Amino acid sequence: MLRLRLSLAFAVLVALVCIQAGFVYWGSNRVNDYAQHSRLASDILSELLELSAGKQRLRVWASQQLMDANASPEVRDSQLARMQGSAETLRQLARRDLFLWGGIAAREGVPIPPEVDQLVSVSELLNDNIASVRARLMRLAPLERGAEFASVWQELNEVFDMARGRDLRELINGAIERQRNVMPVARAATERGLDHLRQQTIGLAVLTLAAAIVLATYLNQRLKKPLERLLEGTRALQAGALEHRIALHSHDEFDRVSEHFNAMAAELQRHRSDADAARRRLEDAVQERTSELSAAHETLQQIDQRRRQLLADLSHELRTPATAIRGEAEIALRGGDKPAAEYRQSLTRIVGGVKQFSGVIDDLLLVAKAEADQLAMRLGAVDLWELLSDATETAGTLGARHNIRVQLETHGVVLPAVTLQADADRLRQALVIVLDNAVRYSRENATVRVSWQLIDGRALVVVSDDGIGIDADELPQVFERFVRGRRARVHRADGTGIGLSIARAIVHAHRGRIDIDSIPMQGTTVRIDLPYSSGSSLPS
Fold first, then answer.
1. In whole angstroms, what is the distance from residue 526 CA to residue 506 CA?
2. 375-531: CATH architecture
3. Which of 61, 234, 310, 401 could serve as a FRET partner for 394 with CA atoms 20 to 30 Å apart?
4. Do residues 107 and 31 touch, judged by C-beta distance below 8 A?
């Protein structure tokens, strides 16, 4: 709507300017025609006077020639040439004047003055007259003695003044008189045209200025309020009031601009809300990360505490076999010679202590290799049933000392033969570690149960006991090195706490998974999940 009003306003101004330009153009052409007519009248008068004067000079030359007064042929030729040029110029001026009057007559609806056509006829007669004069003067010779001058002079005057039976002198004098009368009229017409053009230009300029003022006032009133609303909206946004909205009243382009402005403000408000939410999330994340770092710091402190405990445990574990070995050696060396049987017994006990000492060192090396991803596996075909039977038998021997049974269960179901691609010694070591823990932390006359089943191409081995269990807060750390729970330390003082770390490293090396569930004072369940598909391959 506003665009239409602006277009109409500009169209009115352009129309007024075009009308003014048209009037100025028409008036300027009119004045230019009058000015050209005035100049042509002056030029024609000059040429007519020049022709008249040229004829008079040729008459003087002819009289001198008749009287044999040394009339120069060069003067004659020069005057004839000047007359010929003036006649040609006059002919062109007369035709231009006729063409100009044709335009004026067509534009203003007035007839062409008859003297304009007469002047054209006179200019055409002049060429014939000049040719006749030239021919006569060329034959003109001085008068002989006794010749009658009057008759010859009369004959020359007829040549000078007559053309095609018309009195050329009378025509030229009439034309001169008419041109003298035309010149003031042409000047007056030019001045009137200029005055009229000036009045038209001033009137149209005043009209255009008035229209521009009216349109500017109207547009100013029409644009003031919408622009003020837009400026108020921009100031509100600059001040941060993103909830500000511009009211819609005009139903024109300003309303559309206001709609886009309101949409932009809503979008900015949404972005600010998103930014605030993101900042809050970042603050929460920072707080959460700070909590995590605090927890990590506490964990590191706990690890450091466990490291100190480890050093103490290692010192104790390594000191015991070392002390036994040293004691046996000192007893064997003390006193005099002893029977060979006593020396053999001492050496046997020393060998047992060295084996215990070597076992602790081997366990530490295995954990270190597993953490460095350097735990090598010698893969081969392993029958799961035989592996479980062997590990159960070994664990049963360990449990017999404490009257604890280790039982391999099948639940009365005939299970298919399962072959694993595994390192038999390492996997047996992991199973024995789990079974040994189950035996160690079970009460007397208890039973440790071993079972297995096949689920989706994987073999699940389950070891469960009815022992002392593990507290819930300690379950996440049971696979960490040298970690022993409170209940384990109370139940058995010996142990280094690296057995489950070794078992997890071995199971992970076989692409398996080991999990522990436990209820304090009710028992613990360990699940070992292993792949058994014949085409599987394990990293070495």
1. 15
2. 2-Layer Sandwich (3.30)
3. 310
4. no
